[in-house]
TrEMBL record:
Protein name, per record: Uncharacterized protein
Similarity field: Belongs to the class I-like SAM-binding methyltransferase superfamily. Trm1 family.
GO molecular function, one term: tRNA binding
Organism: Vitis vinifera
InterPro entries associated with the record: SAM-dependent_MTases_sf, Trm1, tRNA_met_Trm1_C
SUPFAM superfamilies assigned to the protein according to its UniProt record, in alphabetical order: S-adenosyl-L-methionine-dependent methyltransferases
Keywords: Methyltransferase, RNA-binding, S-adenosyl-L-methionine, Transferase, tRNA processing, tRNA-binding
Keyword set includes tRNA-binding: yes
One BP term from GO: methylation
One Pfam family recorded for the sequence: TRM
Amino acid sequence: MASLSVCKTTVFDNLCHNASYLTEMLNLAKQWGWTGNDTETHLGKLLKQMIDESDPKLPFGYIKLDEVARHAKINSPPLRTMMSALNKEGYAVSRSHIASNAIKTNCPMAVCIRIAKELQQC
């Protein structure tokens, strides 16, 4: 029974990080009218975010910007500003669908802290 549970989690994780599968889900949702009008702000936005997160360069998990700010001993940087700075430094980055103030990135935490401090000085 435990191995079945592990298998389900692995399959679920793999599907939720598979851009073509998520794109297919988004297309079906559009066909079925699930993303029109007011629902677009929920389902369509979520699926688009998950597609962005499925970049193979991005690790599992996420980093809350409040956590970066706490370690840097500064105010939390704006999400888009931090993402832009990480991109400029050559790191992969996307928003996380798990938390509104979180990002997924292949940037090490120490570098995230350095970048956040630099942004604070601007």
